[in-house]
Amino acid sequence: MDLQLAGKNAIVTGGAGGIGSAICTLLAEEGANVVVSDLALERAEAVAEQCRVKGVRAHAIHTDLTSPADCAALVDRTAQLLGSADVLVNNAGLWPTHLVTEIPLDEWHRTIDVNLTAVFLTCQRFVALNVAQKRKAKILNVTSQAAFNGSTTGHAHYAAAKAGVVTFTISLSREVASKGINVNALALGMVATAMNRDVLAADRAYYEKRIQIGRIAQPDEVARFAVFLVSGAADYFTGATYDATGGMMSR
Ligand SMILES: NC(=O)c1ccc[n+]([C@@H]2O[C@H](COP(=O)([O-])OP(=O)(O)OC[C@H]3O[C@@H](n4cnc5c(N)ncnc54)[C@H](O)[C@@H]3O)[C@@H](O)[C@H]2O)c1
Questions:
Q1: Ligand 1 midpoint to CA 141 (Å)
Q2: Domain-located, residue 219
Q3: Nearest alpha carbon to residue 96 among 166, 164, 156
């Protein structure tokens, strides 16, 4: 299947992380140029280099997604560097742990800022750019099964933000479908990354029991689905949240 990604220009937030780096390298394998955006610039540079080895153009951009200026600058800088931005994968995430009675207000704000407000801000700039350039484009927002199930282990703020991503995705998709811009979300279950390394080390069996397939996903397993959803093979899909949870969530 031709994913028609060759020569497209993609932005991946949290591109230095476990799932983000897998999405970046798979996009590069399909011939897409990649902007690896992350707070962790050194790791982002390393991912950009892995992409360049595959023969595409790739840049690392330091972005603090709690900064509205950085969110806008990410899209603008991509357009300056590559001429356009055809794909936006809002993948960065923050998963702090506190029960509701213990969540400090600044942690609440930071969790909402990174997981939800930054998705709005990058989408806003990305849509404006593509409407101005009259280009078709794809947006994928990474969310979680927690958006539907809530949290049982101290992530109520994260679950609330990820639920916001689901309905934001629906609303935006309706606004921009006629402009040739597709907007979807991908709800993940448990994927082995730095984000959950400690909880998996503490009680892997607790999570595996909740997954029908019986194991935690590897990043590239879900990254392949993400790459399909931003590809030219996915033109008919918009306004949906697709589940990639190994059966952890069935709805
Ligand atoms: N790993 C899982 O089991 C799982 C499950 C459900 C959903 N998700 C979602 O998948 C996405 C990727 O997570 P991951 O598992 O690869 O985690 P990860 O921790 O490996 O990667 C997240 C990346 O986001 C970056 N980031 C955090 N705060 C930032 C900020 N303020 N500005 C810019 N970048 C920032 C981090 O530096 C990191 O590189 C997240 O949206 C996460 O919520 C993951």
A1: 12
A2: yes
A3: 156
